[in-house]
Design a protein that fits this description.
By secondary structure, this protein is mainly beta. It contains 3 helices and 34 strands. It folds into 3 domains: 1-178, Immunoglobulin-like (Sandwich); 213-308, Immunoglobulin-like (Sandwich), CATH 2.60.40; 312-575, Alpha-Beta Complex (paralog of FGE (formylglycine-generating enzyme)). A 5-stranded antiparallel β-sheet has the order 12-14-20-18-16, with no helix packed on it. The two termini are 62 Å apart. The model is unreliable at 1-18 and 116-128 (pLDDT under 50).
Length: 575
Amino acid sequence: MRLLLTTLSLLISAMLTAQAPALIPYQAIARNTAGEPLASSTINVRFTIHDGTATGTSVWQELQTVSTSALGLFTAQLGSSVALSSVNWATGTKFMQVEINLGNGFVDMGTQQLMSVPYALYAGTSGSSTPGPQGPAGAAGATGATGATGATGPQGPAGNGYSNGTATNQLMYWNGSAWVTLNSGSVGQVLTLCSNGLVWTTGGICPGSITTFNCAGATNQGTLMAGTAASGVSSNIAYTGGNGGAYNAQSIASTGVTGLAATLTAGTLASGAGSVIYNFTGTPSASGTASFALSLGGQSCALTLTVNGTGGSGPLNITTALIPAGTFTMGSPTTEPQRGSDEVQHQVTLSAFRMSTYEITNAQYATFLNANAIGANGLYAAGAYPTQPLIFDCGSANGLAYAGSQWQPAAGKENFPVICVTWYGAAAFATYAGGRLPTEAEWEYACRAGTTTPFNSGNCLDYTQANYYWPLPYLNCSNANTNFPGETQAVDNYAPNAFGLYNMHGNVWEWCSDWYGAYGTGAQTNPTGPSTGSARVIRGGYWSSNAQYCRSAFRYDIIPDINTYANGFRLAFLP
């Protein structure tokens, strides 16, 4: 077994000549080799005081039989049977050795120096009104402070002195300028040096301090919109390791997207665990990510909030449709013709979100590129992917071209979907617009708009309903016109689905946020796909796809840095 010491030992100074202790209180918790307390047990304990060092001459020894509590705690009064008067405390530092005998001989549990609190002493009896004897002359210095009961003596060497208590078993310590009475603690507490002195604490945590502060797990309420004053927006952030103590009010300015402040009302930390609520005020200067460097109780963390774009106003003029929360069957049934083996059906539940009504256009993407001075190489040094091209000038008559110092849409094609954009380019634009790429589940749910057929138009996709390779309609379907356009069309061509979204089938493949991976069969809520991968998901087919590849459930994987005439995207936003 082993002994876990929990109480104060006492330093008896080399200058102590006025009074020696009659008894020394001693407390400890006894544990076995597994670290478990020896509860409600009788133990033989041998205490030995050594002079000068841990292995120095034994100057006092006493054997006691003690009983432990239900927590393994035992108490002994050293000097109860063998007087401590035999110890010459003036000869220097003393060490206490503790040995335990459970019936198989004494086992050494360790030796410690008799020193935990400087200049501290439990008085054997109450202080006397008779002035104590004058101490020996110390080094020249200012006159020492008046003792509690003794006459004023000259100042002794630094670190040598003690004060009688004013009551039996009272503990006092010198804080550098005065004697301070230490109040008693509770079982299991430890003595901790905090900013306001020695304090009994739980787990060594000073009042006003915490051990963890979790911005990543914050619960956020409300929505931030660029150019609109924040209202009803807050973050509830949890902490652990609190031990009481007050914290001050705060106001932290945002970085990234500026114009916001996170404010915290002054309060008191809970014991153990709790949370604080930051409220947000101000008007965000732009869409994107607002960051706040927060600090509480000695811990810090970074909180980030998304600021949504301006919706139907502002330079991007992105219109959106509300996609209601709901549950649907993702994937295709095994009876669906020309289905892929990776379209395993499973139940998915989604929260409400907004989706851009149209695919992102050449004009909108050019605004983003030119606002950030992105050159012909398509690199955005200040963005999240500084080494990845966002777009290529792929020479398409329907896309963007870099001319002089600007990106420009092909004449008359401003309202056509942007093409030749990589996954990185789609993600960077989403951040700029205050949105994000939709997850694969969100995309299919929005495309289906409540339908369970291969297309949101039913079992067939007619040439009047989507821009694809009309000569190859879906199985058992036909097209009266097979002279397909052979290029992208304006983003508002063809009729929208039941959610009001245009061109969910055909025109351009649309990037999703997910890495490509196999579906599971279990029910999921707001899935985001695999955490890593080598290819991203694209959905919906494009202007030269067979109808088979335009189905609501069809999935395709492609490396994220590829650019083709076929790839575009749309955005998702908070509801």
